[in-house]
Design the sequence.
């Protein structure tokens, strides 16, 4: 009898939860992880929408997963039994010279900037073992690749002549002040010496 009463009490709550979930799904407010696929790979905008979008935000780089070689292995570090039996470390590699989805100038700059991450076959290797979840580590690897490409495509800031002149003057002033303080300290030390004549 008590079990039957408990079942009766739980059913309305389950119905309420299902109704709330369906309302959220209809409204588009259900929970989405930061690593969900629609956030990692946002849908492409057509030409009209892209033209009206503000230019302050750079376009997201589309990384073709078919061109990447993804492998998983056991992660190092703490984690007890879990870390010893689950392949959570993600390793992503791709041939840098033949990656057409990266601009040519950026590829050359990446090759010079990240030469310690490129093997003899010319593959750029990026790995992540920050998380204990495989998909999260894969997402971190893809984000690292995006950051590398963004860093390689950034143009260096042009420093004006006035700014350069101000920096030179500031350094010279600091050196003069340092030498003045050194001279004062030297005079104090000289005055402490006793004459034995």
Sequence:
């Amino acid at each position: 009898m008590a079990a039957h009463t408990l079942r009766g009490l739980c059913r309305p709550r389950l119905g309420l939860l299902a109704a709330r979930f369906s309302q959220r799904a209809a409204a588009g407010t259900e929970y989405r992880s930061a690593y969900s696929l629609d956030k990692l790979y946002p849908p492409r905008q057509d030409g009209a929408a892209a033209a009206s979008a503000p230019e302050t935000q750079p376009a997201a780089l589309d990384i073709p997963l078919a061109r990447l070689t993804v492998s998983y292995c056991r992660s190092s570090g703490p984690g007890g039994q879990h870390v010893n039996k689950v392949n959570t470390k993600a390793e992503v590699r791709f041939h840098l010279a033949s990656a057409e989805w990266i601009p040519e100038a950026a590829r050359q700059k990446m090759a010079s900037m990240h030469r310690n991450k490129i093997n003899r076959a010319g593959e750029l290797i990026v790995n992540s073992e920050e998380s204990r979840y495989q998909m999260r580590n894969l997402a971190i690897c893809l984000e690292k690749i995006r950051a590398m490409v963004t860093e390689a495509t950034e143009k260096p800031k042009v420093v004006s002549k006035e700014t350069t002149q101000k920096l030179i003057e500031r350094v010279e002033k600091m050196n003069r002040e340092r030498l003045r303080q050194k001279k004062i300290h030297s005079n104090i030390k000289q005055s402490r010496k006793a004459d034995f004549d």
About this structure: The helical segments are 2-27, 37-40, 47-52, 81-85, 104-113, 134-153, 161-192. Residues 161-192 form the longest helix (32 residues). The longest strand covers residues 89-95. Residues 97 and 108 are 8 Å apart (CA to CA).
